Amino acid sequence: KGQSTPLSQTISYKVIEMADIWKILTTILFKICPTPLDVGTDIWNGVDFIVNDSPIWGAMCLGLTLVPGIVKGVTLFVKGVTLWGEKRTWWNFLGCVIFCLFGWILLPLWTVIGFCLTLCQPAPKPGDPITQVEVDSHDCKFLEVNTESMGQVVLNVSILMISGLQEKKFLFPGDLQLLSLSISFIMIIKSAGEQHFFRRTPYYPPSFGESFLVSIVLCPDIIFRVLALPLVCIYLRWLSIAPIVAILCLNYYGAGKRAGKCGLTFREDRLSTAAMSVISPSVYIDQQSDNDDKLASPTIQRDYYSWNRKTLVGVLFPCLILITILVNTTFVDQFGPLCQIHNLQGCPSSLIITTDQFNTIFLPTVILSGLFTLVHQFLSNTAFLARPMRYDEQIVKDEHGNRKTQSSQNKLPSSAQDCLVLCTAGDYHGGA
Description:
Elements: H1 7-32, H2 34-51, H3 55-79, H4 90-119, H5 132-162, H6 175-198, H7 208-236, H8 241-255, H9 267-276, H10 297-327, H11 330-335, H12 355-379, H13 383-389, E1 394-397, E2 403-406, H14 416-425
Antiparallel strand pairs: 1-2
């Protein structure tokens, strides 16, 4: 109408416009695309194995894509939860069957739809919680990462050690294998940082920078585990069940309240934590329950991460020493590392990796990454690691009962007794 627009108002409009564009780009690139891309490449990789006369590897890759749906369906059935309420009826059984059969497409679709709906809503103001739809989308994404992606990484690393690279699809031999492996590994690294804060306050997710720093801190842990576990599995074969069971049992014990240490109270949380922290350090607290563990979650995470690292290194290092002795003796050369001992049909008589490659590439990488995780252990109480991990953070409840984080200026608990008092009180104030 011929009236000039004030400069401040013009700048405000541009800032809002750029914020919306940034929200759309980050949501598409980091939330919507990764999950279907990960599942799609895994399915493509499994089908490619079957087409190229490797039905066992292909069946295992495709089978892992069903695991998230099976876990989701069985969980809903056990809890008696349906879309129409929490009464256990035949609808629960039907929902369980549907998730078990079609969860490989339902869960990624659920994740994509949920994040797409967030784009249609105004961005929450600073300090406001995200919607329940976005929380559910994060839960589905984390379920897919902690079951399928972790299994695919261990399986594909084992395949590379046993059978080597497949035929070229695009640019070089094994490009599809490496693409599927890389996407799954990136998903694990990315989700490790997001879960660290999401398990504390699901309605207040971290920023990209905050989760990225935690992902970098946890990266050596993940590298050590995704290399050490395949080595143990392919060389020890069925005997590898013993160290894996030992890790699960020790994780379960460490997740509970030990002498002078904080821990999880409920058995379901301890079971989930023990199982899901084999590949990546994680602490799981049921979002639906209202207990004091949620308020003490930063201290529980710090104590459990320390225990989990000691457990993995303490169990896997002796196994690696045994494997190194076997690889460098005539025992493996004479009998075959995996197959001739057990007479497994269709399995190669020897590994693709040679003794020199094992001694110069795989073993040093595993040992260095394992020792680096112990360095994290000794630095966990210092500001160098405590600041990005926010171990001194306070978890409080807002007026709606949602957990919310508060920056704490107090020091970390200086003794085990302080930590125990904090958990017993059920109100984490970070005092020492």
